[in-house]
Amino acid sequence: MEILRAAVFHTPRNPFLAANALAAYADGALAIEDGKVADCGDYSALAKLYPDAAVRDLRGGYLLPGFIDTHVHFPQVRILGGLGYSLPDWLEQLTLPEEARLADAAYASSVATEFVAALAAHGTTTALVFGSHFAPATASLFDAAEQRGLRIFSGLVLSDRQLHTELRQTPDAAYRDSRALIDRYGQARYAVTPRFALSASEAMLSVCQALLRESPASLFTTHINESSWEIEEVSRLFPWASDYLSIYERFDLVGPRSVLAHNVHPRDAELSRLAARDASIAHCPCSNAALGSGIFPMRRHIDANVRFTLGTDVGAGTGFGMLKEGLQAYLMQRVAREPIVLTPAQMLFLATRAGAEALGIENQTGDFEKDKVADYVYLKPDEGSVLAGTLNRAEDCERIIAALFTLADESNIREVGGAGHRLL
Ligand code: GUN
Ligand code: ZN
Known about the structure:
By secondary structure, this protein is of the alpha/beta class. It contains 16 helices and 16 strands. A seven-stranded mixed sheet has the order 3-2-1-4-14-15-16. The protein has a six-stranded parallel sheet with strand order 8-9-10-11-12-13, sandwiched between helices. Residues 73, 87, 91, 95, 195-196, 223, 226, 287, 313, 316 line the site of guanine.
């Protein structure tokens, strides 16, 4: 057994529902055995309980559960930083041409290596990843993640209309290639992924329905209600649909294992049905602001009991940092039409345990409860930095977490552990 001694914070309960959801230990300890959390608490208590454990003194730094990014696009790592676009021209001019380059397997493989390294460097130990439109590229992502020891869920991205022709598959090819990937990597790690209703015909959505029926342990992920342009186009393409969600519902794609990205412009009826079906929303506040998509109606999601979590939405988002994403959620909700003041515990929950719940793996990861996989991020400020000074002056653990979300970044992530091995 190894004990990591540092300040330790995690949210084993939901701070949107429970008052005492944050577990915080200023002089804390995380005891790890065989890659699992053996214990977590005050250092003095754990030192007495496990006198023979090897102690690694990491004081001056902070241990958080590994971050969980529930919406991030692997083929978009090289187009980050493209500001000044709205969704349709960003797709048309920047994103789809880059995604087409992943037809080249060697190119795709180098992008995959870069992508998983970026996740690990930012403390993300689990991610639901939009794959590529090309099966070999999507396979290279699964392989790169496995090599790195990252827990990813992903799948072939499916489209058979609109978008660029080189990104389209026929429904038959989509079925065949998806099946082959599910057989190779296992249904538990697979996410059936139509890009969005705009680029998927009814025949393609039927393929998604068949795949999920055959592989009930798989996830379903896609985009919904991101921009007004998209919603208008979709209603034109599906004249029978009462709203956007009803299209996915028609093909049985909405349930507890569904993670729908954005939902910036939902109708009330859609929120009620999302809650009834126990689906989750991946909220991507940096992307929503960068593309001018709108401000996520978090208050309405909370009031309707719809689960939501955080995603970076690389490359429409502004990078891989889940701390930055949590801060952006906080900032946007302050100025939302129905404002919310997110607490530090809620921000931490959204970056960790909420993601585990959305992916149905809250028994494995997301916090430091006993017997979970020891997925952790260790952050430490540079001596003499603004972050170091702010943390030193912080009066309580909530202020420390707020300071980490506000001021820490990739450069402060010194160590990342996942399932008994080091990711960084
Ligand atoms: N809608 C369809 N494709 C995409 C994408 O790649 N990014 C975002 N943000 N929205 C989309
Ligand atoms: Zn996206």
